[in-house]
Design goal:
It is a single chain. It is built from 16 helices and 14 strands. It has 414 residues and is an alpha/beta fold. It has an eight-stranded mixed β-sheet, with helices on both faces. The two termini are 22 Å apart. The chain is globular.
Length: 414
């Protein structure tokens, strides 16, 4: 069963108070904004504990000051903000300090503010340490804590290059076990996370709630497609880091474009690996690669509509093979064929549902062949991929169904 639904009295929802704990919140663009806004629309009182906005550039957003503590509001939500360590895009040390900073300052604020809430909800798209303020406040005031895990620890830590040393692994396992065992419920965004987390959760219930599309077409269909080029356009959109495996994608595209000048690769987004990829494309004289930079969620429909195929890729590591990046659901919403340069769950979804073509993420030749297969596909095949993508989105990633089921479970509590 995809979702678990519990009916709940409407009057209770209207008086329920939820504190959202997350490192990222409006104006940073994450799905938690949509979830919190939905709760407000149902009558739930929602506040958020987060940092000063700085993602993804590692710089404080215009209009904000990096104070130790400040309060602002959005959509009827009080936002409690704590100091954010900046400069983390270029420095792993600053990135670790950012995580540690929120764990400490967030805990202080949570102890002062959390007592009046009925539930604490943790949105975890990154380090699990961000849950510590919620766990400590929940324990102190006997408040049920629910976590929505988007990045499974400790596997992600090792996937990003940290070595499995005995003392370090013991500490990580103890931290993960402490956090999950003190949650009332665990939500996972990917079904494969369940087996990884269950040894740490001490039989606490784990429910699968995937992300719904964060970018969708306008209801009136008035979006104007962006004219990317008069070629056959492949588009990657999202964070541009090393784990997105775009180095191998570029290698495969270089081979494909050498054989066929009528294809173009569009890379939309920003991240720590962007400058490296630009230099790689320049040094390799890959003229048919266009870096568009970061675009807002409001702008993205134009680029998706203007693309022939949407590309998703991740490094070939065990934890990433369990992951379904949120861009996958966004791609489905636009009914475009998907080129999956990835192994694991996403590859299985693409192949089983016939929504595109897959390639070995470690093999430039396989990636090259995928680009050329798409270009040489008949219109009927591309239309079939598109139709199947829309069907999968409706069946498995329906926003309203996910929101209602998730909210009902949180309201049920313990």
């Amino acid at each position: 069963m995809l979702f678990f639904f519990v009916s709940r009295d409407v009057d209770f929802l209207e008086i329920m108070k939820i504190l959202v704990v997350t490192e990222y919140f409006y104006p940073e663009e994450f799905i938690i904004n949509d979830l919190a806004a939905y709760w407000v629309s149902t009558g739930i009182q929602v506040d958020a504990l987060t940092q000063i906005p700085s993602y993804p550039f590692g710089k404080v957003f215009k209009g904000y000051r990096n104070r130790f503590f400040s309060v602002d509001s959005w959509n009827g939500i009080n936002i409690f903000r704590v100091f954010a360590v900046t400069g983390y895009r270029e420095s792993i040390i600053y990135k670790l300090l950012k995580y540690l900073s929120f764990a400490i300052t967030g805990t202080l604020v949570a102890i002062l503010k959390a007592k009046r809430y009925d539930r604490i909800f943790v949105f975890q798209p990154g380090p699990l340490t961000l849950a510590l303020p919620a766990i400590i406040a929940g324990w102190l005031y006997n408040i049920p804590v629910v976590i929505w895990t988007q990045d499974v620890w400790p596997d992600s830590v090792y996937a990003y290059g940290f070595r499995r040393r005995k003392l370090f692994s013991w500490f990580l396992d103890a931290l993960v076990s402490f956090i999950y065992s003190h949650c009332e419920m665990v939500f996972v965004s990917c079904e494969g996370f369940r087996k990884k987390i269950s040894p740490y959760s001490k039989e606490k219930p784990i429910y699968y709630f995937p992300n719904w599309p964060s970018v969708t077409s306008r209801p009136d269909g008035a979006t104007n497609p962006q004219c990317l080029s008069n070629k056959f356009n492949f588009t990657f959109a999202g964070n541009i880091g090393k784990v997105q495996n775009l180095e191998n994608v570029l290698r495969g595209f270089a081979l494909a474009s050498a054989e066929n000048k009528n294809i173009q690769l569009n890379i939309i987004g920003d991240g720590s690996h962007l400058d490296f990829l630009r230099k790689m494309a320049e040094d390799g004289k890959i003229s048919s690669v266009v870096f568009w930079g970061r675009k807002s969620l409001e702008e993205m429909p134009e680029y998706f509509h203007g693309s022939d195929v949407l590309l998703i890729s991740l490094e070939n590591k065990p934890v990433f093979n369990l992951t379904v990046p949120s861009k996958f659901q966004a791609y489905l919403a636009f009914g475009k064929p998907i080129f999956a340069v990835i192994n694991g769950e996403v590859r299985e979804l693409v192949e089983h549902n016939q929504i595109g073509i897959t390639a070995d993420p470690d093999d430039a030749i396989s990636i090259k062949e995928g680009f050329l297969r798409f270009y040489n596909s008949q219109a009927d095949s591309l239309n079939m991929f598109s139709s199947n993508a829309v069907s999968l989105k409706k069946k498995s990633y329906d926003r309203e169904a996910i929101l209602k089921s998730m909210t009902a479970l949180i309201a049920e509590g313990r």
